[in-house]
Amino acid sequence: MKYYAHSTNNRDKIDWHLLKDHLNDVANRASEFANPFQGGSFAYIAGLLHDIGKYSIEFQKRLEGDKRKVIHSTAGAIEAEKWNKLYGRLIAYTIAGHHAGLPDFGSPENESSLSSRLLATNLPDYQYFNSEIRLPNPSGVHFPRLDTPSSLGFSLQFWIRFLFSSLVDADFLDTERAMNENKSSLRGKYRSIRELLDKLDSSLLEKTRNANPSKVNRIRGEILKQCRDKASSKLGVFSLTVPTGGGKTLSSMAFALNHAKIYGMERIIYVIPYTTIIEQNAENFREIFGVLNVLEHHSSFDLPEDRLEDQTKIMEKLRLSSENWDIPIIVTTNVQFFESLFGSRTSRCRKLHNIAKSVIVMDEAQMIPTPFLKPCVNSLVELVANYQSTVLLCTATQPALNSFLPKEYQPVEIIQDPEQLYQNLKRVKVTQLKKPVTDDELAEKLMSHDQVLCIVNSKKHARILFEKCSGDGNFHLSTRMCPAHRTEILKTIRERLKKGETCRVISTQLIEAGVDVDFPIVYRSIAGIDSIAQAAGRCNREGLRSEGIVYVFIPTEKHGLPPGWLSRTAQVGLNVMNRHSDLLSLAAIEDYFTELFDIEREGLDREGILPLIQEREKELAFPFRTIAEKFKLIEDAASVIVPWDGQSRKLIKEIRHSDFPATYLRKLQKYSVQVYDNEFQTMLERGIIEEIASRFFVLREELIQTYYNEHVGLVPATELKD
Question: What is the pLDDT confidence band of residue 449, given thresholds at 50, 70 and 90?
Fold first, then answer.
């Protein structure tokens, strides 16, 4: 009898996928994926065993059309422990979870736990696998010598995740190769790191030729040179401390590509804190390296699983690369990156093995979410210690992370004299307003300037303050506006600034990180020093004025005061202001983060991720699924699609009649506004939004005048009376 892994509609079985071929091919491919972190022999065993449950008559009947469900992954997990009691458990996690995701080890009472599944006795007979599959002798397989920079348990569970990734990706790719050759043929064929470096060098040379010979541009050239020079340093943790406006984005990419070329690394992963700025960076990289070599991947950009009938070959190729990150340049977010490293689902974890042998650039490293700082930092160190990777902490305000890093992984600073560089690029003066200000007083101050930016801590404060400023040339920016709307407003803002026309902007923090605008005067509501420094980066950005001015103010209204965690960072910011005359100096920044982390030391692992890992580490009993549920960097929010313009209305009309509505996800992203659950439920109850195609929630077009303002975006439904 022949046993099969996958079937087609052909009843003669001539093109069915032989099970023994699938197991051997997955084993070989998984082994190749795991070699960079010394997991090749373990991944090979996992590949051989992962589908042996398909050797049952029951599963073969299912392939022939029987509708009864057959769980086939438990068999391989059991056989892994039989093969080797100690090492087998590491492999068992990956096999048991290769469809449903990494399980908790848990207890036998929980039937979904690994401990329960390893005790299962009611499985269909799958023993024929012994006739076709030959396992290596356990005595010839040795566990790699891992460095354990944080703890043994953390390193082991991290290694299991990467082993899981290798198996899952190998399984998907082999199935795809056997069953969908057209799809499989689109994978790979990217430019080499050497070729991408040549493209960057050519682009930078062209920029240098066309740049004006200003002091700022000369300093940017020196920063670039130091980044290139430092690229030959051995793999490790690096820091790039460059004030805003110093050109650190392209300089850090120059370091990354040169470093990758020298050490035979395979990709650059550029991690950015906010989705609001990722598109700008990704587009810059696409212009330099070509669209087929850059993947933009974040939560609101996840491409659909459904058939992409209306997508071009390019989009299909990028969709495939989003599954496993096999592309040379990835631009992603903190959320996508870290939640993948601590995830359990196959779709999240499939990409992990391709993070090995990478240069990981943490742009705005001070924005690593503080409640998860310890596990995040541990994971970065782990990548350097055991996965042939380098981490570059790239920031204008280097946080005091040294106390969380082991001695042998302290950051190597790329800039020779960061203090002197700060002085050379100093373009603004920060002044604290002596008295708290009301919204009316603040509006009066803003209206006295022709060009001014005001940044506040909440969407509500931005909206109320904007409404107090009347006349032409006043603009509002917040995430209550869909991205297409914000893009339109930003274009107008830049044009007015360039022409010297009246331009007063009231914005939330979204404008601080990476948005390229240049104002002579900035007002910033009290916040952490890192946020104030980012606000200062929008002031006299190009150094064309002798000095820009940043006013830090304390609002009197409740809606203007910093909420929650931000109130603590603001208080520490005030403390530092009282101790330093120059609020943006490196000494002040160091002082700020040292005090903040000292106050919040117990809150730097808010969900207790590290204790969860260590609790039963000696038993190799890890709660993978529980950790994934707890490791959420941002609150879950729902998307509301706004019929903002003719294109959005056309797309909404199309999805009403489409057989493949998920293919519209990316196109509609720029018309979406994120709202939290209480407001979303209110909008549903009042009929403000309608559900289309069982997945899209759209603001009713006839209500857009009431609930979407052309100046401030989505009007809060929870603040309006019926």
Answer: very high
Residue 455 buriedness (CB in 10 A; 0-12 / 13-18 / 19+): buried
3-state DSSP helix/strand/coil percent for the chain, to nearest 5? 50, 15, 35
Selection from 453, 189, 461, 448 nearest residue 317 by Cα: 189
Name the strand (E) or helix (H) holding 194: helix 193-210
Side-chain half-sphere CA neighbours of 120 within 13 A: 24
pLDDT at 495 over 70: yes
CA pair distance 9, 6, nearest whole angstrom: 11
| Residue 513 confidence (pLDDT) | 67
Structure tokens at 190: 């990217």
Question: CA-to-CA distance for 659 and 420, rounded, in angstroms?
Answer: 60
In Å, how far are 175, 177, 640, 704 from 182, measured between CA atoms? 12, 8, 35, 44
Q: Residue 520's pLDDT is what? A: 95
Region 80-89: mean pLDDT is 92
DSSP 430-464: EEE-SS-B-HHHHHHHHHT-SEEEEE-S-HHHHHH
Contact by Cβ (8 Å): 147, 386: yes
Distances (CA, A) of 468 to 363, 493, 610: 35, 19, 48
Confidence of residue 514 (pLDDT cuts 50, 70, 90): low
> How do beta strands 329-333 and 358-363 pair?
unpaired
Q: How many CB atoms lie within 10 A of CB 417?
A: 11
Q: Which residues have CB under 8 Å from 406's CB, separation 6+? A: 149, 150, 381
- Which residues are 392's β-sheet partners? 238, 361
Report, as an integer, the average pLDDT of 235-246. 89
> Which tokens in the block code for residue 309?
């009938």
pTM: 0.89
Which region, left, alpha or beta, applies to residue 237 given φ > 0 means left and ψ of -120 to 50 means alpha? beta
pLDDT by residue (tens digit) across 304-337? 443 333 445 777 778 788 899 999 999 999 999 9
SS (H, E, C) 495-545: HHHHHCCCEEEEECHHHCCCCCCCECEEEEECCCHHHHHHHHCCECCCCCC
State the Cα–Cα distance between residues 582 and 404, nearest whole angstrom.
27
Nearest to 57 by CA among 113, 95, 1: 1
| Backbone torsions φ then ψ of 711, nearest 5 degrees | -100, -40
Query: Distances from the Cα of 699 to the Cαs of 248, 291, 300, 428, in angstroms?
Result: 40, 32, 18, 43
Q: Is residue 89 pLDDT above 80, yes or no?
A: yes
Residue type at 710 in one-letter notation: E
Question: Any idea what DSSP says for residue 13?
Answer: -
Maximum separation of any 2 CA atoms in the chain, in Å: 86
Query: Quick check: 628 and 345 in contact, CB under 8 A?
Result: yes
Q: Which residue has the higher pLDDT, 382 or 716?
A: 382
* DSSP code of residue 688: S
Is the per-residue pLDDT at 609 higher than 90? yes
Residue (of 580, 560, 562) closest to 570 by Cα position: 562
- Alpha carbons within 13 A on the beta-carbon side of 263: 23
Confidence of residue 199 (pLDDT cuts 50, 70, 90): very high
Length of the chain: 722
Is residue 56 within 8 Å of residue 70, measured between CB atoms?
yes
Taking all residues of the chain, what is their mean pLDDT, rounded to a whole number?
90
| Bridge pairing between strands 672-675 and 638-641 | antiparallel
Whole-number Å distance between alpha carbons of 177 and 29? 12
**Of residues 112, 393, 439, 388, the one with CA closest to residue 248:** 393
Percent of the chain with pLDDT over 70: 95
Q: Residue 316: which residues within 8 A CB-CB, separation 6 or more?
A: 183, 186, 308
Strands (E), 180-248: 237-241
pLDDT score at 664 = 78
